[in-house]
Amino acid sequence: MSESAYSKKYTNVPFSDIPFSEFDDFGLKSSKFESVKKDNKNVKRKVDKKTLVLKIIVFFLLILLLLEGILHTIIIPSLAPVKVQFSGIKNLTVEQLTSKVNEIGSATWIQFDVAKAVSILSEIPSIEKVSVDKQFPDKVFIKVTERIPVARSIVSENGRSISVQIDKNGVLFTGGITLGVNDSNIPLISGLPIDRIQDGMRLPSKYCTLMERIAELSALEQKYFAAVSEIQVVPKDYGNYELILYPIHTHVKVLTDRSLDEEQLKKMMVALDIVNSIEADAGELDLRYGAVSYRRH
What we know:
6 helices; alpha/beta; six-stranded mixed beta sheet; three-stranded mixed beta sheet
C-alpha cells in the first residue's frame, strides 16, 4: 500500500484502532529498502578497494620502469668500460691515438669528456681536425683528419738538419706522411725565415698564401712540381719576396715573382725548351714583370 493510500484509509481513525498488520507491512517494506541500500554500499566499497589496489600496482610498475631507466642510462654506462673506435687514420696508428686518449683518464663511457678528447688529440701536429661522438651505451667514435703535406723544407736547429712538412695552411709538422727524397709533386721549399722549429707552428701569413697556391697547383692534372726539384724563397725589401725555381734535368734556374700560378709554370716549361735549344750557356731564366729573358753564366 502506498503512503498516500495508507493516509487516506486511516484518516480520522484513532491510532488505537489501526490494525497491527498495517504497521507490520510498512515496516517490512522499510527494512527491505534499508537492506538494498546496505548492499549497494558494500558493492561500492568493494569496487573502491579494487580500484585502490589497481592504482597501487600501476604505481609500483611505474617505479620499476623508472628504476630500470636509471639502471640503463646511469648505472650501466657509469660502470661499463668505454669502447673507442677511430676512423680517418692514414699514417698515424691506433696505438698512438689510444695512448693519447688514455691521458684523459676516462675509463667509463659516462666519464668520457668529449671536449678534452678533442683538445688533447688536436695537440698532435699531424692532425688537422678531430670530431668526437658519444653513442649510448658505451661507444665513442673519433674521426681524425690528418694534415696533407703540399711542400717540405729543411730546417737547421742546434747544428742539425730537420726535415719538416708543410700543409696548405702553412702549418709545419714532422709526423704524418713519410716523404722520400724525390717525392713526386711535393716541392722542397728553401729560404723560409724559420729560426726555430716547433711542431704545429704556422708560417707567417704571406707564406701561407704561397702554400695555398702550391696546394692548388698540386691538385691539377698536370703535375708541374714533379719537374721542379726546389723552390727558393728570396726575401725582398718592405717584406716582399720573390721565388727561384730549380727545374729538374737542366742547370737553368727560373726567377719569378710571388704570384705563382699555372700560367707562369706553363710559360716556364715553354721558355726552358726554347732557351735550352738556342743557348747552351744560359744559366738563368727571368719570368718577372711580365717579360721573358735569360742570362748566361
